């Protein structure tokens, strides 16, 4: 079942195994490098049903890392379309993940001669261990400017030939911060009730739909819950937001959870050998998929490591797809291996040492390459 061709979230896919968005750090001042194109070619050759890019910067109001891919200007369309073409030539499908980072930004850099602002719904300081991130509360005009930037980015993705777009509504990035009563203490139309806290996300989706037309696939990555000490976004609230997204014609929702302020071991990227809890958002996503059956496709990411578990999840629930991130870094050809009958679990040990600023790769692959080069 996992390896049958299928239609998920409005896209014809090779199979139901999706490469979840994974920041690559392979941009040269925001534009794609040869490394990036080769990495996506490998994923396409390796049999991923479809590939979701690492998060792309959509606006010029906030800082970003110079190695983060951007789609904040029309000049990005031609170079991005070359990457898309190479994926298509290798039989793959590729969806552009669009983000407004807000105060979850890591290693902010501002291009020379420009002024950029780290912003958040209410200017609540973000604390992660010893690290704190101050931010500026957004004005309503700035919110509208960002919504407009997201819509323009979606239109550019369509022009560049991407098979769809995914808006990043999870992991504490700006749309997820708006949903959180911990970080969003606004008293205007963008804060307070769930309806108000969801306004930024829903307005971004509406603006994107307006920009790309009725038939172009729009996906959303969303937290099932924030798993913070004070609750923050709850699963009950998340299910309501998912229902609103489905009503707005979102083609697929990829369920994740947590952020950098979540309780210990409750973030989005977990050390599953230590927690002994693989597939950590499966139950939430399966419940959401049953609820939204016939309205939108629901998938899930987080801790899937064996084809047996993936098959079981697809057969016993209404989930339309299963995503993985870290296993694809270690083994870009994992779907083809599994398809060929080699059903060994993914080699990824979920140590998360692949995190890095530039040229993100599995630490074991890096060591292997260093040995070969020596
Ligand atoms: C190096 C790295 C970069 C990531 N970058 C992104 C990203 O750009 N956008 C996003 O939505 N999630 C990102 N994630 C989170 C993954 O998409 C995924 O939600 C998480 O790793 C759990 O899935 P896994 O257990 O299959 O790795 C990243 C994860 C890793 C390890
Ligand atoms: S560094 Fe660790 S978590 Fe990342 S891909 Fe390699 S084994 Fe997996």
UniProtKB/TrEMBL annotation:
CDD domains, per this entry?
OYE_like_FMN_family (cd02803)
Molecular function terms from GO:
FMN binding; oxidoreductase activity
Q: Which UniProt keywords apply?
A: Flavoprotein, Oxidoreductase
- Superkingdom of the organism of origin: Bacteria
Quote any Pfam family the record assigns.
Oxidored_FMN
Q: Secretion signal: which residues?
A: none
InterPro entries with a match to the protein in the record: Aldolase_TIM, NADH_flavin_oxidoreductase, OxRdtase_FMN_N
The NADH:flavin oxidoreductase/NADH oxidase N-terminal domain, residue ranges: 8-341
Q: What is this protein called?
A: Oxidoreductase
**The species this protein was found in:** Megasphaera elsdenii DSM 20460
